[in-house]
Amino acid sequence: MTKFVKALSLTSALFAAAFSVTASAQEIERNGEGRFFYNNIVIPAGAETLYLSGSGASQQEDGTYGDQEQQTTNTFEKFKATLEGMGWSMSDIVQVRVFGVAGEDGTFDFAGFNRGFAKFFGTEENPMKPVRSVVEIAGLVVDGWLVEIEIRAARVPK
């Protein structure tokens, strides 16, 4: 092997090593911050993702599921326990999709939902916020649920 070929091989190897460090050090990019959510989040190549399917509130002792704020809070508490049990955190959530049912007055209690949501995102404990969609629907499979939520989480391996 000539000195030039050896130097070229060494340079290529150093460049490849430097590039791989830079690529793996990329962070999740959050843009367009609003009060409760971002309007776009960029997940870099190589990030781990986790999807948790639709979940709703647990039944209370009185047999009900509570109002919109209680159901939202309870649902995110369940997600938090699941995530932490798997070694993830609420700050890893990058997307929230919400299916909400109108109450007896015919409207979705969006203010109640936001109160419950705000307990988990944009807080001192978790300053991160996801992107989110909220869709009002006619009903859910579980009678008494006012909200069903699914999430997507992502994190960059260290």
Strand order of the largest sheet: 3-6-4-5
> Structural class of the secondary elements?
alpha+beta
- The helix-strand sequence is HEEEHEHEE
The Rg value, from CA coordinates, equals 22 Å
Low-confidence stretches: 4-25
CATH architecture tag: 2-Layer Sandwich
CATH secondary-structure class: Alpha Beta
Percent range for helical residues?
25-40%
Described by the principal axes of the CA atoms, the overall outline is: globular
Q: Whole-number average pLDDT?
A: 86
Domains, number: 1
Instruction: Provide the β-strand percentage band.
Output: 25-35%
Number of helices: 3
User: Could you tell me how far the N terminus lies from the C terminus, measured between alpha carbons in angstroms?
Assistant: 37 Å
The CATH topology assignment is: 60s Ribosomal Protein L30, Chain: A
What would CATH call the homologous superfamily?
Answer: RutC-like
Largest sheet: 4 strands, mixed
What is the strand tally? 6
What descriptors fit this protein?
158 residues; alpha+beta; 60s Ribosomal Protein L30, Chain: A; four-stranded mixed beta sheet; two-stranded antiparallel sheet; 3 helices; 6 strands
Describe the structure.
The two termini are 37 Å apart. This protein is of the alpha+beta class and 158 residues long. The protein has helices spanning 3-24, 68-85, 110-117; strands at 29-33, 38-42, 48-55, 93-101, 131-137, 147-155. The protein has one domain (27-155): 60s Ribosomal Protein L30, Chain: A (2-Layer Sandwich). The strands form two sheets. It has a four-stranded mixed beta sheet with strand order 3-6-4-5. It has a two-stranded antiparallel ribbon with strand order 1-2.
